[in-house]
Amino acid sequence: MTIADGGAAFDAVVLAGGAASRLGGADKAEVVVGGRALLDHALAAVAGAARVVVVGPPALARPGVTTVLEDPPGGGPVAGLAAGLAALGPGADVVVVLACDVPGANVLVPALLDAAGEADGARVVDEDGRPQHLLAAYRRAALDTALVGLDDPHGAAVRRLVEKLRLVDVPDPGGLSADADTWADVDALDARLRGTIEP
After folding, report:
1. What pTM was estimated for this model as a whole?
2. Domains identified in the chain and CATH numbers
3. Is the pLDDT reported for residue 106 higher than 70?
């Protein structure tokens, strides 16, 4: 039985900070796509997790979900991930790391959990061949070791964090890893999802 089938527990860190400069400073996590806020799509994608931490401002808090923010704020995704892992504390062997702006992640998360196997983790590779390190399932021990290897997580590039990890690539031929970086992206995702997800 695999993790995705409920054979083992996993934890999740949902990254919901960031300036969203290409959205005019809008609160990206609360942007509605397909009748649901982007953050709520992300939380639905990791609903099977034993524990979930959202990294973002306190205004994003959801009932029953721990919400934290890196200190100082604005440190980037690696600093956010470090804060999220610290808030989780010791837990499951596998942690799903998910940016909040990928409403198609619910289909991809089970595939990531299945693919992680004995490697350090599994990441989605989009239709253009780009690895998506914030749509991934990692061995917790491997992430913790990688973070220790950084001088400072604030401002660090995600690719630097994971460059020494043995990661399995999970293809995304359906474009489900598309994210909402711009309002044009939001409109395209909304058109794709409208009518297929209950609000």
Report:
1. 0.88
2. 10-193 (3.90.550.10)
3. yes
